[in-house]
Amino acid sequence: MKKGEFLSTGEVERFLAHFPLGLQDIALELRNMLASLCPGATERILWGGLSYHDSAKGGPIRGAICQIELCDDHVRLSFIHGARLKDPKALLEGDRKSKRYVRLISYEEVPWEAITELIRAAADLDPSTFDAPLKPLRPRGYDPIAEEYAEKYFNELDHKPFDRLLLDRFAARVRDLGPVCDLGCGPGQIARYLHERGVDAFGVDLSPEMVALARRLNPGLRFEQGDMRDLRALPAGDNAWGGIAAFYSIIHIPRQGVVRALCELWRVLRPGGSLLLAFHIGDEVVHLDEWWGKRVSLDFTFFSLEEMEDYIRQAGFDILEVLERAPYESVEHSSQRGYIWATKS
Ligand SMILES: C[S@@+](CC[C@H](N)C(=O)[O-])C[C@H]1O[C@@H](n2cnc3c(N)ncnc32)[C@H](O)[C@@H]1O
Question: What domain count does the chain have?
Fold first, then answer.
């Protein structure tokens, strides 16, 4: 951030003068926080509050960091891009995608640490990524290890009763809803399992080698190369699919791109359709340069259940079930597993 422009103390004090002292104290503390966390911000009196944006990232809306509004009995700290913020303490209110806010009533009870984190995260947002052309992922990411992956995981469901039960229930729900995609299918074991249960299943994967392998291992089933972040090229029209089972593919979408990818899945699902998502639980990003002796470059993003639930809701889905299980040792990587079953209403 380049050095920004803050109003003079006199201007701010004149603006705040009409409000109760307790609320002024909160507003001034927030303002101090903004000045120290976002020295490049531009401060304006706008829409009846103190508004902060980073002019290098756009105007008061696009480059918005936050706004301090003084209401009768509380200070409202609003974030225009609030839906994109991680909010582990669930402070943000408002069910609109934009302009989420925190209500601050008394200075002593403000969760200052969490507020600091929200402001810091809002200042770090990069609006150019919101609707910029998608940065190409590495389609060849899994190519070098496709064979090894298939060898290890193609028959994994034999050893995963929890997953089989869940997929059985999923199959029963989507069977009559039209095509169902195993998205990020790898060798296609999920598509095959669903197909064996009467589902019109097919697979999509980013890696051409995985797609070739899935075709070889599952003759008679359809597999296509595609990117879950934009399925129009497949082509996949709006409301086209009855279900999507995406097992451990969302883990390769960078955190800041997850809502956008889920919006794409929402677009292609028909009303009443189901999304079943599986992922590793955690908050880390694991990078691999080497896997089974082969050179790769892969990032694995772990998510908390709450975080993923929030992303899924932001994309417009209704959540049906949230499940967690311990790893099947010796069958799979030893991470806690999360499953979310959501529907498009
Ligand atoms: C961990 S593997 C999971 C494969 C399989 N679903 C399973 O459960 O074993 C992740 C798969 O997601 C695919 N993938 C990664 N990013 C993707 C994207 N943007 N769109 C579609 N597939 C993707 C990878 O190529 C890889 O085959």
Answer: 2
